[in-house]
Each structure stands twice: as C-alpha cells, then as structure tokens.
Amino acid sequence: MSKILLIEDSITQLALMNLYLRDSGHTIINLTNPKEALNKAVLYKPHVIVTDLMMPEMNGFEVCRQLKKHPETQNIPIVICSAKNHKIDRIWGMKQGAIAHLSKPFSRDQLVWTINKARLSSPKNYQQYRLCELIELYPLEGKPLANVG
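Above: the chain's sequence. Below: its structure in token form.
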C-alpha cells in the first residue's frame, strides 16, 4: 500500500504501531533516533512520516522543521503521534508542518485512518491514488493508451 517512516523512541509503542500498520498492508521503516529522520526520509522516500514529540536529543517539532526545510522531504505528509495533546501542542505541530495530530493512546482504526488520510493529503499521492482507482473502475481492456479517447 504505502511506505511509512515511524520515528518513535519507545520500542513497545513502535512495535504496536508496526503491528497495526503492517496488518493494514503498509511497509514500515522504523527509527528510534530522531536525528536520523532526514537521512532516512531522503533515502527511503516514504509516503507518510509519523513522529513522536517527546524524544531525547531532538523533539518531534524539530524533526518537522528539518523535514519541511529540505527540498526532497518538504512535501511528505507528517503526522504527530504523541501523549502531548494540549491545544497548543496541536497548533504548534501544525505550524511546524505536521498535517495531523494523533493522541496516545490510540486505537488501530484511529492510526490507520489518520495514516491513510495523511497519505492522500499530498497532491502527488492523491493523483496517483485517483488514477489507480479510475483504472480499477474503468479498465482499458487491452487498448493502448494512444487509441483511448
């Protein structure tokens, strides 16, 4: 389905998120050190990045800022997944470039729904999704594209 970069310093939380997302058909790239986020995002080109806020060495707000400044990662949707769920945390996260904030604890359905919505928020991803959807609904039936019309 899609590649998700998870940035989470808690191994148990990372395992839970992996379980939920793999069961939904996503490919997961795990990261426990937020300082590696930019390099891994450039290398793997994920469809969505999910980051915790409270992590050692670099917090999730800093991760968002770093990713949004880089030309190769600036258009990747970022979801904040954190126990910090005050209104100011949500607002500040959006100002740093996140498109969604998921509060911990969360259910499988909440995580999967948020990831799928984030994935479609990127114009490029949405266009690719719609194209695949249209091809499924209206197959070309072996006709070459040049003759369609």
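Residues 123-137 form the longest helix (15 residues).
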